[in-house]
Amino acid sequence: MLTLRRFLATLGPGTLWLVAFLALPLLVMLGYSLLTRTDLAQVGPPWTLENWGRVFGYDALFQEWVTDNLRVLGRSVWIAAASTLLCVLMGYPLAFYIARQGARRKNLLLLLLIIPFWTNFLIRVYAWILILRPFGLVPSTAATFLGMVYAFLPFFVLPVYASAEKVDWRLLEAAQDLGASPVRAFLAAVFPQTLPGLVAGLLLTFIPALGTFVVSDILGGAKTALIGNLVQNQFGQAGDWPYGSALSFLLMGVVLLGLWLYARTAGQKGLEELV
Amino acid sequence: MTRRADLPGSEGESRGRRAGGVSAPVPRRRTHPLLSAWAWAVFAFLYLPILVLIVFSFNNSRFGATWEGFTLRWYGVLAARSDVREALGHTLTVALSSTLVSTVLGTLVGLGLWRYSFRFRTGLTFLLVLPIVIPDVVMGVSLLMFYALVRGGLELTGWTFDNGFWTVMLAHVTFQISYVALTVRSRLAGYGPELEEAARDLGANGVQSFLRVILPLALPGVLAGALLAFTLSLDDFVVTYFTSGSGFRTLPVLIYTSVRRGVTPDINALSTLLVLFTVVAILIGNALLRPRGGRA
Questions:
Q1: How close does chain A come to B202, measured CA to CA in Å?
Q2: What is the pLDDT confidence band of residue B20, given thresholds at 50, 70 and 90?
C-alpha cells in the first residue's frame, strides 16, 4: 500500500519534477496558444481561438480558408510514412538476418548496428551533405528521405529484432511439414510472431520522422518544410509564440492519436513495453 | 534529441526472462544468400556516411568534394578553437549533473512503480511515457515559454534568471527521469514484493532491506538507465537548442550552427573524434554490461 510517507520517499520527487517541468510547461503552452501576439515574441490578451483556427487553415483577418497548413501537415505525414516504409523494406530483413545468427556473431552484428545508432544524430545527418552535395542533391526531397531513413532505421530494426529473436522456429518447420511453400510458411508461422516488434518499430520511426525539423532543415531546404520546421520558425524568425503553440498541439495531437490507437490494440502493457 | 529504444545491456534481460519458460529452440544457422546480401548492403549503407566523414577529415581540401592529399591540419584548426572546447565543457557538465539528478529521481520512481499499486498509476505512467513519445520540438518550445514566464515573474521580484546551464540541465533531467524509471522498473519486473517481506522476516528494517536486497538487484537497471540518460544528454540537440538561450552552447548546438553556415573541414575532424569516442564508449559499455554466468 502506498502511504504518504512512502510516496514522498519513492515516487514523490520524480512525480513532482515531471509535474513542474513537463505538465506545467504544457499548460503554459496551452495558455500561450489562446493569447494574441502583440509585438515580436510578446504576447498578451485578448484571449482568442484565432491561432487554433489558423492551424486548421482559417485566416481570421481575411475571413477565408487557406490550405497552406494542411498542405504542410499532409507533406509531413507523407514524408514520415514513406520514410517509415523504406525503413521496413531495409530493416525487416536485416533484423531477421541478425536474429538467425549464432550467439557470438549476433552480438557482433548488434554492436555494428548500435554504433551508428549511438553516434550523434546531427553528425549522422550532416554526413549526408558531404556525400550528396557533389551530386547537387542538397537540398532536395530525395536527400530528406535518405537522411530520415538513415537517422531512424535503427529505431525500427531494434524492436523488430527483439521480436524476431523470440520467434519459435518450430512453427516454421511444422508449417513446412504440412506442405506449405516457404513464403506461405513464413507468412503464416513466422510473420505474426514478429507483429509486436513491427508495430513498435513503425511507431518509433514514424513519430520522430513526423516531428523532426533537423533533417528537413539541413537536407531538404524550403520545399520540404515539415510541421516541425513550421513550429521552429514560429519560435525563431517569425516570433509568433501563440501560433507556434497551437501548431505544437496539432503535432502532439497527431502523435497521441497514433499512440491511442496502438494502445487500444496492444493494451496498456503493450504501450509500456513500447518504451 | 534522438531516442534510444534499446541499449547494449538490455539484451541480456530479455534472455533471462525467457529462460524460465520452454527451452529455446536452436535457430538454424543457414540463411538464404539473398538475405545475407541484403543485410550486408544495409550495413554498408549505415557505415558509408561515417567512413566518408572520417576520410574527409584528413582531406587537404577546403571544400571537401575531391581528394587532395592527406593532412592533419583540420585537427590542428579544431584544437585551436576555444568555442569548441567551451561547448565540450558545457556538454559534459550538463550531462554529468543531469544524469546524477535523474538517476536518483528515476530510480526512486522505478522502485515505487514496481513496489506499490495506487490509484493514479495509469496517470503517472502516462506522464512518464510523455517525454519519450512527444516530439522533441514540442517539449523544447513548451519549456522555452515556461522559462520565459518564470523569468518574467522573477524579474518582478528583482531576481534574474539567465543562466543557460540551469535551464538546459533542468530540461534534460525531465526527459531522463522517464528512461531511468522505466529501465529500473523493467529490471525488477520479474520479482515480487515477497523479496522485501523475506528481508523483513530476517530482521531487516526498511532502509536495510532497501540497501541490502532491493538496490543490489536493481543495480544493473540503475547503471543501464544512467548510461542511457548520460548519452541522451550528450546527444540532445533539439531541447537544448530551445532552452539554452544565446550564451550557452553545447557541442550539438555548435555543430548545428556550423552546418547551417556551410561545411567546414574542422567539423569533419570534430565529428570523427566524436564517432571514435562513441565506438570506445560502446565497447566499454558492452564489456561492462555483458551478462556473466547466465545472470544479467
A1: 21
A2: very low
- A189 lies in a domain? yes
Tell me, yes or no, whether A173 lies in a domain: yes
Among candidates B36, B259, B278 on the partner chain, residue whose Cβ is nearest the Cβ of A218? B259
The answer to whether position A156 is within a domain reads yes
Which of B108, B136, B171 faces A13 most closely, judged by CB atoms? Answer: B108
The answer to whether residue A124 is domain-embedded is yes
- DSSP code for A119: S
**Between chains, do B135 and A21 touch, taking CB under 8 Å as contact?**
no
* Chain B nearest-CA residue for A246: B138
pLDDT exceeds 80 at position B200: no
Of B48, B105, B134, the CB nearest to A255: B134
Q: Which H or E run includes A59?
A: strand A58-59
Give the integer Cα–Cα distance in Å for B137 and A74.
Answer: 18
Interface probe for A, chosen from B4, B78, B84, B138 (most Cβ of A below 10 Å), is: B138
Residue B146 CB contacts under 8 Å (≥ 6 apart), including other chains: A21, A24, A25, A28, A29
Point out the residues of chain A with pLDDT beneath 50. none
Instruction: For residue A42, give the H/E element and its range.
Output: strand A42-44
What's the average model confidence in pLDDT over B22-44? 75
Length of chain A: 275
Domain with A142, as residue range(s), is 85-225
Using one digit for the tens of pLDDT, what is the confidence trace for B64-89?
677 888 888 889 888 888 889 999 99
B159-197 confidence digits (pLDDT tens): 776 678 999 999 999 999 999 999 898 888 878 777 777
What's the structural domain count of chain A?
1
CB of A238 within 8 Å of a chain B CB? The answer is: no
pLDDT for residue A57: 75
Q: Is there a contact between A95 and B39 (Cβ–Cβ < 8 Å)?
A: no
- How far apart (Å, rounded) are the C-alpha atoms in residues B222 and B215? 9
Q: Tell if the CB–CB gap between A127 and B132 is shorter than 8 Å.
A: no
How many of the other CB atoms lie within 10 Å of CB of B250?
Answer: 29
Mapped onto helix, strand or coil, the DSSP state of residue B162 is coil
**B281 to A118: CB separation less than 8 angstroms, yes or no:** yes
| Alpha carbons B209 and B215: distance in angstroms, whole number | 9
| pTM listed for this prediction | 0.86
C-alpha cell recorded at residue A131? 556525400
- Over residues B5-26, the mean pLDDT reads 44
Mean of pLDDT over chain B:
82
Q: If you count residue pairs, one on A and one on B, with CB atoms under 8 Å apart, how many are there?
A: 275
In single-letter form, the type of residue at position B281 comes to A
Whether pLDDT at B295 is above 50: no
- Report the gap between the CA of B193 and the closest CA in chain A (Å): 11
The CATH number linked to A90 is 1.10.3720.10
| Binding-face residues of A in 139-198 toward B, CB within 8 A | 150-151, 153-155, 158-159, 162, 165-166, 168-170
